[in-house]
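A reminder from the course coordinator: this example appears on the midterm review sheet, so study it carefully.

Given structure:
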């Protein structure tokens, strides 16, 4: 049976890429997103006159399908190259990294990409899905506010633990072996603590405006002004390393932020005027599934997609979204 309608949970890259493909081929698509804005981990935040990329910082393009997508984004004026590589700092010294592969970014920040993808789609914001159920006449979904949606197909794109928890809310059960495999991947998600700091003068982070650090406490530091997305303020994004983020996830945010800022003082080189802390509970999965998506065929198919199925990156999430749409369209 052809799929005429599809509900997509999550307006991150995987959900939006899939939604566009499906809609372009005549499927009626509704995207439900719990947040008040689209993009998921492609998040750009404005604080006063400062602009920060909070989650994903840049991306590479290797898979042919993704290279084609990125070309469209570049042609549409949404994406540009940031650099050909980033340096690493060790013991206060900058070590040149291997150069040569384009690292891309959104023109005004990473959220440009989901904003572009969402154009013309039916995306419902602040719709946290709380129940999903397979009934005789298709998939039924309920949101926190009690709104009800139904469709022929259901595509879940939240991080695996959240997707599995959603599937537990109704009568549908995944095959046991698949469920166990996904639970194992879900248990390995790394958190990430991000600190967004506004400086009162330009930073000392060298060109092109970012550095890889040891990871304890800080793994990545980026100057969004040099990056080109925060013209009016020196806005620094600091990402803690995986182990530090795990150990300190529940510590008071101010204590953690001070520790991270102090560890980078030589690269900041100016006073911190203010800072904000963001906790990413599910940053990246440490292992990924063996296929670009999970596809459960049937009269009313179920698909699971996202970065945990192809590669824990912008590229992996996008290719997984494409694969999910392709499988549904094959029906
Ligand atoms: C700190 C950090 C740094 C990163 N750096 C990079 C980088 O530099 N380069 C790179 O390539 N990748 C990076 N990544 C990874 C990249 O951001 C992700 O792989 C990609 O954005 C994931 O997209 P997705 O669509 O799979 O998931 P998400 O973006 O997480 O989208 C899932 C969506 O589902 C929504 N959702 C969840 N539950 C529900 C519900 N019940 N109801 C409705 N909606 C729901 C969420 O709000 C979210 O919007 C980084 C990630 C983080 C967190």
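Designed residues:
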């Amino acid at each position: 049976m052809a799929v005429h309608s599809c509900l997509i949970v999550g307006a991150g890259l995987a959900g939006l890429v899939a939604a566009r493909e499906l809609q372009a081929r005549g499927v009626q698509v509704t995207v439900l997103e719990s947040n008040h804005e689209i993009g998921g981990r492609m998040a750009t935040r404005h604080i006063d006159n400062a602009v920060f990329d909070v989650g994903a910082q840049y991306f590479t393009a290797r898979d042919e399908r993704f290279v084609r997508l990125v070309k469209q984004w570049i042609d549409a004026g949404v994406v540009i190259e940031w650099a050909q590589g980033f340096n690493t700092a060790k013991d206060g010294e900058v070590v040149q990294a291997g150069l040569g592969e384009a690292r891309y970014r959104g023109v005004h920040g990473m959220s440009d990409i989901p904003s572009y993808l969402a154009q013309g789609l039916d995306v419902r914001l602040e719709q946290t899905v709380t129940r999903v159920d397979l009934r005789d006449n298709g998939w039924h979904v309920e949101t926190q506010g009690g709104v009800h949606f139904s469709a022929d197909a259901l595509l879940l794109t939240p991080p695996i633990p959240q997707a599995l928890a959603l599937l537990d809310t109704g009568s549908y059960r995944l095959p046991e072996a698949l469920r166990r495999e996904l639970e194992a991947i879900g248990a390995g998600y790394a958190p990430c603590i991000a600190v967004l700091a506004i400086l009162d003068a330009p930073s000392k982070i060298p060109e092109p405006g970012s550095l890889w650090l040891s990871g304890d406490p800080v793994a990545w530091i980026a100057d969004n002004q040099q990056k080109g997305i925060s013209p009016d303020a020196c806005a620094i994004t600091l990402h803690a390393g995986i182990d530090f983020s795990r150990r300190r996830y529940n510590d008071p945010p101010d204590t953690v932020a001070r520790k991270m800022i102090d560890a980078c003082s030589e690269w900041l080189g100016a006073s911190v005027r203010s800072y904000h802390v963001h906790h990413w509970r599910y940053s990246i999965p440490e292992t990924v599934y063996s296929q670009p998506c999970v596809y459960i065929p049937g009269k009313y198919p179920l698909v699971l997609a996202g970065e945990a199925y192809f590669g824990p990156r912008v590229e992996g999430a996008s290719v997984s979204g494409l694969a999910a749409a392709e499988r549904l369209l094959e029906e």
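The chain is about 30% helix and 30% strand. The chain has two domains: 5-40+115-187+287-330, 45-111+189-285.
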